[in-house]
Amino acid sequence: MSDASAPPRAGHSVISFLKNMVFAGVSAASAVLLLLLLVLASRRLGEVEYGKFSFALGLGTIFETLMDFGLHQVAIRVVARDRSMALRIFRNSLGLKAIWASAALVVLVAAATILRSETDVRLACYLIGGSLVLRSYMLTVRGVLQGLERFGWDSTVVIADRLLLLVAGGIALETGGGLQGLAVAFVASRAMALLFAAALASRQIGPIGVSFDRALWSELQRTAIPLGLFLVVINLYSRIDTVMLGVLRTDAETGFYQNAYSVYEGLTYLPSILAAVLTPRLAALFVTDRRLHRQIAVAGVSASAGLAVIIGAVTFLYAEPLMTALFGVQYLASAAPFRILSAGLFLVYALWILHITAISMNREKLLLTTGIVGLVAKVLLNAFLIPHYGPTGAAVAVLVGEAVSAVFITRGLLKRPDGCGRREPT
User: Fold this and answer.
1) What is the maximum alpha-carbon separation in the chain?
2) With 80 as the cut, is the pLDDT of residue 65 above it?
3) CA 103, 109, 110, 112 torsion-angle sign
4) pLDDT band at 418 (very low <50, low <70, confident <90, very high)
5) 258, 146, 259: which is closest to 205 by C-alpha?
6) Phi-psi region of 69 (alpha: psi -120 to 50; beta: other; left: phi over 0)
7) What is the Cα–Cα distance from 206 to 1, expressed in whole angstroms?
8) What's residue 416's pLDDT?
9) Minimal CA–CA distance to 221: which of 104, 101, 107, 96?
10) 321 with 379: CB under 8 angstroms?
């Protein structure tokens, strides 16, 4: 086992930073594996069945954040500031997460049962929800690895998870398993990926085990709750349009929008590369060098938004050929909402860095308020636009919601740049 408490010999060097960027880039690039699975599913399932799958995936993802409830981000921040805490945080997070994961799965089952009457859709929701519990435990491993800036091993966990999911899902689809076969593949692949992550964690962090340190559980939960509430809100923000389409419009239209949003979401993994590397660095700098913290945060926002302008222009112009090349001519209707989503890429790219900057400054309340404001704006717009304009209306709601969120969090960070300076778990 590596010594998790040992300080990095060149933790803040340019070489270390660039190496971490490469590993984070590999993790982000592995999102292509998920896109390939969605492409295959859209072609093998057909518009209606694929729409059902999109609804189940969207609903499950909304509740996924309840299973972690901010522990992933807290682990990164605490371990980045004190590496000797890695094993304690890891073991106590495993125990604490069991409570949240169980509760979230119960609520997901209830929501799926209420929202959809079809047995196949309900079962798909239940199975995908179970797979997300397993994925949530992988996030615990990843949070500690990222806090230790061991991005190479973090990339290994991510790639293994997504590759197993692509292989298992592909086999299920190609053998005629349909919607239910694909949902079962999610559970099976995530179980295998979790076993792999657990084996790796035992070597990199320490022996696997569940600890109950009452004081630490209390402090972890107190610190994580504001972050967890924000992540629940932001995840609901990201998926509510798909769920509302599944309830208010047709399954086929839900599938059209899912294709557009999945490519859009894949493009947003690019700023996640920078965000992943900056998260532990900004967390450490906030308590050691506020001036450098501010400079790096501003540079990160500027670089991320600038990259989005270029990517957004290209995808806006080539929306139709891109959608048809990926999903087939039967999904040409996905191009219109995708073009609208592309126009707002610069907003979501900037928000990636603004979010992790706020986390590094202990500004969880600002994050939560920002998420709620954006969510309310988006839900109200969706309630009006989706019944009249379908997937295109949902895309417009995303664009407006991102703009509202970006303005709100920027004003909040500028108004109180020093943050609240709350202590971390010890």
Assistant:
1) 59
2) no
3) positive
4) very low
5) 146
6) left
7) 6
8) 58
9) 96
10) no
DSSP H helical segments within 249-334, as ranges?
Answer: 251-267, 269-285, 290-317, 319-327
The Cα 367–Cα 229 span in angstroms is 9
Q: Is the dihedral of CA 249, 177, 117, 64 positive or negative?
A: negative
The DSSP result for 207-250, as a single string, is: -------HHHHHHHHHHHHHHHHHHHHHHHHHHHHHHHHHHHS-
Write down the pLDDT at residue 173.
92
The token duo for 167 is 């292989």
Q: Supply the pTM of this predicted model.
A: 0.65
What is the distance between the alpha carbons of residues 16 and 210, in angstroms, rounded to a whole number? 32
What sign does the dihedral 226-229-235-236 (CA atoms) show?
A: negative
For the chain, report the end-to-end CA distance as a whole number of angstroms: 23
C-beta of residue 268 within 8 angstroms of C-beta of residue 403: no
Tokens 């860095």 locate to: 353
Residue 140 pLDDT: 83
Amino acid at 90: F
Q: Is residue 169 very low, low, confident or very high in pLDDT (cuts 50, 70, 90)?
A: very high
d(CA 290, CA 287): 7
Output DSSP code: residue 330.
Answer: G
Q: Taking the domains of the chain in order of start, what are their residue ranges?
A: 14-415
Residues in the chain, overall count: 426
377-396 tens-digit pLDDT: 999 999 999 999 999 999 99
- 390: alpha, beta or left? (left if phi > 0; alpha if psi -120 to 50): left
Cα 47 to Cα 331: distance, rounded to the nearest angstrom: 8
Tokens of 68: 């972690």
User: Residue 421: helix, strand or coil by DSSP?
Assistant: coil
